[in-house]
Amino acid sequence: MSRWLLQHKGALLVPIVITEPAVGNGGGLAAVFFHPPKQSEESKESGLHIPPDIYGAAAFKTENGTWGYGLGGSFHFKDDTWRYAGVIGKAYVNLNYYTQGLLSAPKEIGYNLDGVFSYQQVSRRLGGSDLFVSARWLYMDLDSRLNIPSDDQYFKPKEFAKRASGLGLGLSYDSRDNTLTPSKGWLWRLEATEYAPAIGSDNTFQSYRAHAYGYFKLSQDWVLGTRVDYRAVRGNAPFYQQPSIDLRGIAYGQYQDQNVGMLEAELRWNFTPRWALLGFGGAGKAWGRTLDFGDASTHTAEGVGFRYLIARALGLYAGLDWAWSEGDHVYYIQVGSAWR
């Protein structure tokens, strides 16, 4: 598989099997290409490992009428001094928004999003370190409609804004031994994005994210991964751009608010040179609009899975996860790390 992907420029066809409770069962297909970037002899002698360039296209559809397609990739230039990542696509999505309150029970509000999106980011390595500074542009042009028009009483008019265009800055540190399926090292990022009419946005608001992934090789066959993740919005953000608890086993959007925080751990046992078993679990909170951090409930999820080393030269594992939480049971096909 490594020779097919790297030397013959073949595509890795990845089936998309969707069992996400938020959109129902569905499927699709992704065609992913891998290409080793150019690297100078001096860089090779220094021992610098440059991740492969990855690009491709994908399309999917689910039983509740949700569908989408897009293309994108990540590329490395000048001995990994510069990095570029970008995605463009179109989606038609049917989801639910859940209100939260101290006294009233959560209310499920169905809505639809229909439009296009784009994510473009350029990163620059700082000297010979593992630090990168980045600039990004995010753009979404989405029509949002509620399934029941009278449910608009739960929102402010500005929360139905159509266009969101934001410019952001980021700082990251990446010492992972492999960007596809890491076994040791760290990845942490700090990101802030400003959305404003001056750059094409209907509303003025800000989004923030701070997260860190740590990978520890406990022994030759055991790897522990840890994750801390915080996301937030401020200002007049559209309701569908509020962050949501993002854990395997929890439906997307079920716990959504101005702030979300998550902790997760994953233990992988490589019981043969190519096969691995893993277990994972995490917890998260959503708070800000009506609930303070102390009043918000903690939601947990856990699961098990397996991996197969599908491309040895790339260090790329693929497999299946089964996760559950508070009544939901979900399967995921994973190619590479489950954490994004």
What would you say about this model in short?
This protein is mainly beta and 340 residues long. Helices cover 3% and strands 57% of the residues.
The N- and C-terminal alpha carbons lie at a distance of: 24 Å
* Low-confidence region ranges: none
Helix content: under 10%
User: How large a portion of the residues is in β-strands, by DSSP E?
Assistant: over 45%
Global morphology? globular
Order of helices and strands: HEEHEEEEEEEEEEEEEE
Number of DSSP strand runs: 16
| Neighbour order of strands in the largest sheet | 1-2-3-4-5-6-7-8-9-10-11-12-13-14-15-16
Query: What is the SS-derived class?
Result: mainly beta
Describe this structure in words.
- With 340 residues, the chain is mostly beta strands.
- It is 3% helix and 57% strand.
- The protein has helices at residues 2-6, 41-46; strands at residues 11-18, 26-35, 53-62, 67-77, 82-98, 108-125, 131-146, 163-174, 185-195, 205-217, 222-235, 259-269, 275-287, 299-311, 316-325, 328-335.
- It has a 16-stranded antiparallel beta sheet with strand order 1-2-3-4-5-6-7-8-9-10-11-12-13-14-15-16.
